[in-house]
Amino acid sequence: MALRKDYPWLTPAAPAVISSPMMKICMSKLTVETTLAGGLAFLAAGFDVSNLAKDLAECAELFQKASFTLSDNNSLPIGVGFQNWGADLQVTLKALQQHPVAAVWFFGPKKLKDYAKWTESIREISNNKTKIWIQVGTVAEALEVVRLCRPDVLVVQGADSGGHGLRQRAGIITLLPEIADALRRKGIHIPLVAAGGIIDGRYRDEILRVVDGGVATAPSTIYDKARGITGWPETYVGRGVTNKTYHDAARGRNENVIKALHDEALEKSGGTKGWGPRGRLTTYAGTGVGLVREVKSAREIVQEIQRDASYILGRRAADYDATRGRPSGDGLRSKL
Ligand SMILES: Cc1cc2nc3c(=O)[nH]c(=O)nc-3n(C[C@H](O)[C@H](O)[C@H](O)COP(=O)(O)O)c2cc1C
């Protein structure tokens, strides 16, 4: 499908593996490693893009070190993800002119219509070479984003996702097909990507310890308040590991006291301890956290997902063909 044409380094004949732009986690090293392993990762630019040019220069250096040849227009074989509510478009455009990239990923705007200007400007400076990905959480949002921007890819983010997402949305099992049907009814064909996967990070030991993600994680605004982040639009909330900060807020403890305790914990440990259920520091993660049992390299994760997805899709294609008495083809597999 289109993904392989636009991102030719993706492993051929395997499902496309994509890492979302996880703030403070999917930075230059993980982004470049994912491409080198045959996947596509989005460097997390977040809401403060003042370091974007430097981070992109670091990616370029890592590709050079790995002797990875860039395309003719020197475009980096990576994406960049923004939290649009705080990101400065002009600073972004300057950085992307210096270091063009294959794709950008938008999320969390103040108003959906802000995406139109971002889409138009990035398409203009890149001569349409930088593809536009937009993460959405409801059917209405998907239809409006398509009307405003006609993105190249829609990322569908279900309610179990880690980090921030719309307060009100369905789980991925129903959300993905409902958005697919709504677009199909309007004759719109845009690749859909389901958001998922949590990997790596300073708090990875805590992620390994946590089980039963529907209970061990919860959406709450206190995680941001404790960190002093106040800019997220009202319609968003962040899902993280339930910890002392979360339980204090649930009991109605004063939020200034909660923040002071959070800051004290951060200062005491220098950020090396205090994550996880018994700590106070924010550990963003989705309900899939219970499935993460081992620390693995980006390469191992990309290859494992490719293998498992190929197997499952291959088996389902064979079952489907068998029920209709047709010879087994690669129908489902080729849709990836
Ligand atoms: C630690 C963390 C940081 C994240 N940061 C961002 C971000 O900067 N921009 C963004 O669009 N999404 C961000 N997300 C959300 C992801 O795009 C995606 O929706 C989520 O990882 C999918 O959920 P899952 O990994 O729990 O299955 C973040 C998620 C996590 C867990």
Structure description:
Mean pLDDT is 89; it is low at 197-202 and 327-336. The chain has helices at residues 2-6, 28-36, 52-65, 89-98, 114-125, 139-149, 172-185, 204-209, 213-216, 222-227, 244-250, 255-269, 298-323; strands at 18-19, 40-46, 76-82, 101-106, 131-136, 153-156, 163-166, 192-194, 217-220, 236-241. It is an alpha/beta fold and 336 residues long. The strands form 2 sheets. The chain has a 7-stranded parallel β-sheet with strand order 1-2-3-4-5-6-8. The protein starts with a helix and ends in a 13-residue tail after the last helix. Helix 2 (28-36) runs parallel beside helix 3 (52-65) and helix 4 (89-98) runs parallel beside helix 5. One of its GO terms (molecular function) is nitronate monooxygenase activity. Pfam families: NMO (PF03060).
CATH class of the largest domain, named Alpha Beta
Strand-residue proportion: 5-15%
Which small-molecule species are bound to the chains here? flavin mononucleotide
* Topology, number of strands: 10
Topology of this protein?
Layout lengths: L1 H5 L11 E2 L8 H9 L3 E7 L5 H14 L10 E7 L6 H10 L2 E6 L7 H12 L5 E6 L2 H11 L3 E4 L6 E4 L5 H14 L6 E3 L9 H6 L3 H4 E4 L1 H6 L8 E6 L2 H7 L4 H15 L28 H26 L13
Parallel strand pairs: 1-2, 2-3, 3-4, 4-5, 5-6, 6-8
Antiparallel strand pairs: 7-10, 9-10
Helix pairs in contact: 2-3, 4-5
The site of flavin mononucleotide has 24 residues, from strand 2.
